[in-house]
Specification:
The protein is α/β, with parallel strands linked by helices. It is built from 52 helices and 37 strands.
């Protein structure tokens, strides 16, 4: 009897319908007994089966034996001479063919293929118990069974089972055979692109963009992988630009490993070997990870990159992970790799060892592992080391290959979705990771021309008019489906109905339904049943965060094997020409939707067409969650009447209706309207745009009008906008008849466009909307970071009538752009409040163009532009002739130098605020500026010359004009005591105190500090940060401060090492300082003691103290706790305070008569215990900052309880950077009415916490504008 040591348990779905099992049942049905011993010739069976003696158990045991044997023979047959044969799971397709043959043969004639002369009496069979009298028992000969299985399963004209004295394979023949088969299989896999069929060979591949920038991939790994999120739009939709080429992947991995490897020789060698030869590829579903592996495999096979001797291309979804029984596991790693690659190989145990030795020492082994996220294993758990020569599970072999314990020199490229990759154990996660960004616009258009031929321009034109469709085309599968459907709809004159991505998918499904295959192969009841079952399966998977389905999942929704093979898993040629094929469902041992977009689409169909109304209502709080973004959008799309027509023909029988469609539509409208107030108060542009997107997707006029009725008078927009966002905005704006003010950017926030196409779309759409709706006023327009075309600038210029604040910081502003802007400004009746520009191309001509409209603006900000002295002269002359002074002139970051300063000096008498920071102005230039200001008849509000090397020469010149300056900033101007002394003397002579004097980052010296003491009475705010002030200098300043009649508002001595001695000196003058900043000054508890002693003696005011980054620790906190009565604001950021220090501070707060205005304890690791202690004193502090303090859900829970007890809400609570999670989010959601501003960014709050927060915001009328970070997470 042959020795059977190899085998693998196959898919349960095939086990009891296999040839072996059906043969046993067929023989049994004809009363033809079969001996269990005969079956045992195929593999070792459990003794309880083989040795059963009760006749009544033999039939049952035969069935069991057949099931066990079937799992083994589908993978491998071994003869009596120990020659094995690897066979991949793909051989199951031959089993399916064999089933039909066996059934027909057994049903037609019980003796065929077991002829009469092949049967013998059971009485002649040894070791069989006798049966009842008169009963003849027959058995099937062992040799015939073997022949049947060998011929039916492996009918490929090869001699697999060999008898007699066959010899072991010749290694000189076996190695080349293995290499050829691996190469052939890899080349076959690389040639299958999955969607394009007949036209594929003629299409030149378009490029996928690859980047090493993984910031986006790790912002929220739980949501990434569900494609088409708005976050994806902002990073890759506009213009994905990769920073690494496919052929350079391993070179970049090696370079990174060499940089990061430890220096110790042995450790360095191991690190380089493990991490320099492995590349991780991540990306959302359908983005092209598998396509990249196939492209990579192809170029390797073409010898364009990487010399290779062996290449294993392994789709992880085809790996058999169910072999947990030792006798069914792969015998060694060679079997695992060969069978998982889809190859077959005759071999022996000796040949296995020889091949493995060669593979281990060969650096030219390439492993391509596609889809690690599809493996049904826990990647977060460590797997012990296994021997490559011994049997182990597929999981163990795979993990040992990834961590380099097996084949450490092999080159490995692995793919996964980001969330699953993020959860991997560090031992298996590659160090060098790239992100697939998809197709950039040029590739999308190129693919369209190749797919649509002569219709390509029409298709591209249609997409240009429908940005919501174009927005999805960066994902290859979406690009192909969208362009195909648009082309067909244009040919059939039904394009008017394809105005949303939902309608595109519905159109594709309807074409799928109309194919001959579906009409002929699948009867009506089967077709409707299959689609509905698929909806239920999609919903179950989405609800359970499941993307791979096993037999039990399919059985639960009544999807059987015939339905899969004949319908769902089949490639369907949509058109007779066979130029496009659509596959919705896929898989072999495990099943899955071919692309996530189909999964989410079918989830939406299940919810809208079949879900009971009560369950629909229960799910509504989830609709605004990030993971639901696409599903919710599809739900709104399905509520569109035209789209519903398509879907009813696919999912519903005649006269069958959806479940409560009108009520669900009304609930969706209600949900969108309920989201608006919180979103607009929260100033969350992305979330607001999402609601507008829902309205645009469903094209529901009722919802559109209802949204416009709820819009506030002032609409604020900020952040990155895509063309799709612009389309959604204008869709809503064009429906309103109320007066609204639109601010595209506000404060320091701006609107950003990543590419010219988006900015052009924005300006053109806004122009169109403002023309159509005179009731809309665009008052603020701040644009940054994108190119603007000439057409876009023309549209922008036509939108300026009501713009008060204009900021344009694109990357390509030219003279022609500036000239157009100048012409537009001159035509305006009212001057603009502010104009800010950056331009580099022909800057002199641009400056001259601006000079022609200098009367048309109140503030001019030109930053980082290469303007010549002639350009400055032109603008200076125009400013000089203005009737009214210009309020602000800001040339920060431009090169002005001496000539430019001279040119500008003539206009400074007509400017109220001057910012010439970082302009490479030296002493002579400062002299020109000072002379101009000195001659003014009224003071300037601000003169800022920081970061210019004006030196003492410039300082002396500036001292002559101090009387005409309210705020003077000279940070980092290379001043010494000479220049400082001159300025101090001038300040001392002022009639009224100067508001601000900044001399930071200048070396004052003893004389400089001494000179300042003479003018302290004439300075309200003095900034001396990083001026090398010593304890002796501090004493000098303190002596002068004690003599002041009025307290100084702000004295900033930060980053000067005055230490405890200097702090003791400063403590003597606290009565004459309102705010003292001594951050990072080398103070310890000794200095704190001196400070608190002085604070306790304050009589005329409470002080504000900034003690950040000093070594205060818990002892200092204890000292401070007794002096809090006279401290209005206290900042102890990063002061080494732990739990006990927090307790002391809490006790001090409890003793206060009036609440402290602000307490900052951020970045002190006092964890939950400290947070709980502080929380008990919340009523005694108006604003509390405890960012990044190690607080978890436990601390958040106590904070929430204490907040609920407050009579008046806190002004602000900052918790950002603490991992409070969903539980903490839920706890805080109950007390949002007790805090006006809550910062919970980067707190690990996911779906459940966000839901609770959102529900709480809607439950009470208060200003939710301070709930920062809720919608960002």
């Amino acid at each position: 009897m042959g020795t059977w040591q190899y085998g693998a348990v196959v898919d349960n779905a095939h086990r009891h319908n296999s040839p072996m099992c059906k043969m046993v049942r067929g023989i049994e049905a004809k009363n033809l007994p079969i001996r269990v011993e005969t079956l045992a010739h195929f593999a070792p069976l459990p003794a309880t089966i083989v040795n059963a003696e009760e006749p009544e158990n033999q039939v049952k045991n035969a069935r069991t034996a057949a099931a066990v044997l079937d799992a083994q023979v589908t993978t491998k047959l071994v003869s009596s001479n120990n020659i094995s044969y690897f066979s991949p799971p793909s051989k199951l397709s031959k089993l399916n063919q064999a089933e039909t043959t066996f059934n027909k043969q057994i049903e037609s004639d019980p003796v065929d293929p077991f002829s009469e002369d092949e049967l013998e009496s059971s009485a002649n069979t040894s070791n069989q118990p006798s049966t009842s009298a008169g009963t003849e028992r027959l058995v099937v000969k062992e040799s015939n069974i073997k022949k049947i299985f060998v011929d039916s399963i492996y009918n490929d004209n090869r001699t697999i089972y060999q008898s007699g004295s066959a010899t072991s394979p010749d290694m000189n023949e076996l190695i080349p055979e293995l290499q050829n088969k691996l190469t052939e299989q890899a080349r076959s896999a690389a040639s299958d692109v999955g969607l394009l069929k007949n036209v594929c060979p003629s299409i030149t591949p378009v490029s996928l963009e690859i980047t090493t920038n993984l910031k986006q991939a790790y912002e929220d790994p739980d949501d990434i992988g569900h494609g088409h999120r708005r976050a994806d739009f902002l990073t890759i939709l506009d213009q994905p630009e990769g920073d690494v080429l496919m052929q350079d992947l391993f070179q970049r991995a090696k370079s990174q490993a060499e940089t990061e490897a430890p220096q110790e020789p042995e450790s360095r060698e191991i690190y380089l070997r493990n991490h320099g030869n492995c590349v991780g590829v991540i990306g959302q579903a359908g983005i092209g990870k598998t396509t990249l592996t196939k492209m990579f495999t192809k170029v390797v096979l073409d010898e364009s990159i990487l010399q290779h001797d062996y290449i294993f291309y392994i789709p992880i979804r085809n790996v058999n992970f169910e072999t947990t029984q030792p006798n069914l596991q792969p015998k060694n790693v060679l079997e695992f790799l060969v069978t998982s690659s889809g190859c077959e190989l005759a071999h022996t145990e000796e040949s296995d060892k020889e091949i493995l030795k060669r593979l281990e020492s060969n650096p030219n082994v390439v492993l391509v592992l596609d889809g690690l996220d599809e493996a049904p294993i826990d990647w977060s758990k460590h797997s012990p080391k296994v021997s490559m020569y011994k049997s182990a599970t597929a999981e163990a072999f795979l993990k040992n290959l990834l961590n380099g314990k097996i084949f450490p020199q092999a080159r490995k490229i692995v793919t996964s979705r980001p969330r699953q990759f993020h959860d991997m154990h560090e031992d298996y996660k590659p160090e060098f990771i790239v992100n697939i960004m998809g197709l950039k616009k040029e590739s999308q258009k190129s693919l369209c021309r190749k797919l649509c031929g002569s219709d390509s321009e029409k298709v591209l034109g249609y997409l240009g008019n429908h940005p919501s469709l174009f927005a999805y085309c960066y994902v290859p599968v979406n690009c192909i489906i969208t362009m195909y459907c648009i082309q067909r709809s244009l040919q059939e004159y039904v394009s008017a109905s394809l105005d949303s991505i939902t309608s595109i998918l519905a159109f594709a499904l309807e074409r799928f339904r109309r194919t001959p295959h579906i009409r002929e192969v699948a009867p009506s009841w089967s077709r409707f049943g299959a689609f509905r079952s698929l909806c239920r399966l999609a919903w179950n998977g989405f609800r359970n965060r499941q993307i791979i389905f096993d037999e039990d999942d399919l059985r639960e929704v009544h999807i059987d094997k015939e339905m899969l093979n004949a319908f769902l898993r089949t490639d369907i040629n949509i058109e007779n020409e066979g130029d496009f094929r659509l596959r919705i469902f896929d898989g072999d041992k495990r099943s899955y939707f071919s692309h996530l977009i189909w999964h989410e689409m079918f989830v939406a169909v299940e919810i809208m067409l079949f879900m009971p109304l009560d369950e629909f209502r229960a799910q509504m709080p989830n609709f605004a969650l990030n993971r639901w973004e696409n599903v919710t959008k599809f739900m709104y799309g399905i509520s569109n009447a035209k789209t519903m027509v398509y879907l009813r023909t696919i999912f519903l029988k005649k006269r069958e209706t959806p479940v409560d469609p009108a009520e669900k539509k009304n609930l969706l409208n209600y949900f969108a309207l309920q989201c608006l107030p919180a979103l607009m108060e929260n100033d969350s542009t992305p979330a607001l745009l999402r609601v507008f997107d829902w309205a645009n997707e469903c094209q529901n006029m009722e919802l559109r009008n209802a949204i416009t009725e709820k819009l506030p008078r002032e609409i604020r927009i900020r952040g990155t906008l895509h063309s799709n966002d612009v389309s959604n905005l204008t869709y809503i704006f064009q429906a309103t008849n109320k007066p609204h003010i639109i601010k595209a950017g506000f404060g320091f926030s701006m609107v950003r466009f990543r590419v010219e196409e988006s900015s052009r779309c924005f300006f053109q759409k806004i122009e169109e909307t403002l023309t159509m709706k005179p009731n809309l006023k665009l008052t603020v327009l701040k644009v940054i970071g994108s190119e603007i075309s000439e057409a876009g600038m023309e549209s922008l210029c036509r939108c300026l009538n009501n713009v008060e604040d204009l900021v344009i910081f694109p990357s390509n502003l030219t003279f022609y752009h500036v000239q157009m802007l100048a012409v537009a400004l001159r035509r305006l009746a009212i001057p603009k409040t502010s104009v800010s520009l950056t331009f580099n191309d022909d800057a002199e001509q641009g400056a001259r163009a601006l000079a022609s409209c200098m009367d048309c603006m109140e503030r001019l900000n030109i930053r980082f532009s290469e303007i010549s002295s002639e350009g400055y002269a032109a603008m200076s002359q125009a400013i000089q002739t203005r009737e009214r002074p210009m309020k602000q002139l800001n040339f920060r970051g431009n090169v002005i130098s001496e000539r430019g300063a001279l040119a500008l000096s003539s206009c400074l008498s007509n400017v109220d605020s001057i910012n010439f920071e970082g302009n490479e102005i030296c002493g002579p230039g400062a002299e020109h500026i000072a002379a101009a200001i000195q001659s003014r008849d009224h003071p300037v509000e601000l003169l800022k010359l920081s970061r210019n090397r004006i030196s003492d020469r410039g300082g002396i010149a500036i001292s002559n004009c101090v009387r005409n300056v309210h705020r003077l900033q000279l940070l980092g101007c290379s001043l010494t005591f000479v220049g400082v002394s001159s300025i101090a003397r001038s300040v001392q002579q002022l009639e009224n105190p100067i508001e601000l004097l900044e001399l930071s980052a200048n070396v004052l010296g003893d004389q400089g500090v001494l000179s300042l003491t003479s003018c302290l009475a004439k300075v309200k705010t003095l900034l001396l940060v990083n001026c090398s002030i010593t304890p002796a200098h501090a004493k000098t300043l303190a002596d002068a401060l004690r003599l002041l009649d009025q307290p100084m508002k702000n004295l900033d001595l930060g980053f000067n090492q005055i230490g405890d001695e200097g702090m003791e000196a400063m403590s003597t003058c606290l009565n004459n300082i309102e705010l003292l900043n001594v951050a990072h000054c080398g103070m310890t508890t000794i200095g704190v003691q001196s400070l608190c002693t002085a604070v306790d003696q304050l009589s005329n005011h409470s002080i504000k103290l900034v003690l950040d980054m000093n070594d205060i620790c818990n002892n200092g906190a204890e000292i401070l706790s007794s002096s809090l009565n006279n401290i209005k604001r206290l900042s102890l950021w990063r002061c080494g305070i732990t739990e006990s220090g927090a307790v002391w501070l809490s006790d001090g707060l409890d003793s206060l008569e009036f609440p402290m205005e602000e307490l900052n304890l951020s970045e002190n690791q006092f964890n939950n215990s400290g947070a709980i202690a502080i929380s008990r004193s919340l009523k005694k502090v108006k604003s509390l900052y405890i960012s990044s303090c190690g607080v978890t859900s436990t601390g958040a829970l106590e904070l929430g309880k204490e907040l609920l007890l407050l009579n008046e809400p806190m002004e602000r609570l900052k918790l950002n950077g603490n991992k409070i999670g969903d539980e903490g989010g839920r706890a805080l959601s109950t007390c949002l009415s007790k805090v006006k501003s809550l910062d919970i960014t980067q707190c690990g709050i996911n779906e459940e916490g966000s839901k609770a927060m959102a529900a709480s915001i809607k439950s009470f009328p208060f200003d939710a504008s301070g709930v920062i970070g809720l919608y960002a997470q």
